[in-house]
Amino acid sequence: MSEVHSILSPSDATRWLYCGKAIQLDLERNIPDSSNEDADLGTAAHSVFEKCIKGNFSSPHAMIGQLIRVGKNFIECDLEMANAVEIAVDYCRDLYQ
Fold first, then answer.
1. Closest residue by Cα to residue 3 from 74, 76, 69
2. Which of 29, 33, 35, 60 has the CB geometry, 3.0–4.6 Å to 39, for a possible disulfide?
């Protein structure tokens, strides 16, 4: 998973969908990419999800105990993360079956 944050991040969609200049302004202001513990957990969960969808793992539960690098930190995939990711993986796989 990329270490660079998306310019068109879904969490900021309401802003850039309604203001076409928002993206340009963000790029011009060169705002540093910041994070916190919750954001790092979300990034780690997305990484587990991506590995399952791309076929590296059949289930997120296979990743329990593994460390996922997020920036300079490492987040451990635990049962709670695996259970949450499994819901998203199952939903996406059902869409394409």
1. 69
2. 35
Q: What is the pLDDT of residues 38-88, one digit of tens each?
A: 989 999 999 999 999 988 788 999 999 999 999 889 999 999 999 999 999
Please classify residue 13 by burial: count the beta carbons closer than 10 Å to its beta carbon, then call 0-12 exposed, 13-18 middle and 19+ buried. exposed
Dist CA 35 CA 33 (whole Å): 7
Q: Which amino acid would we find at residue 3?
A: E
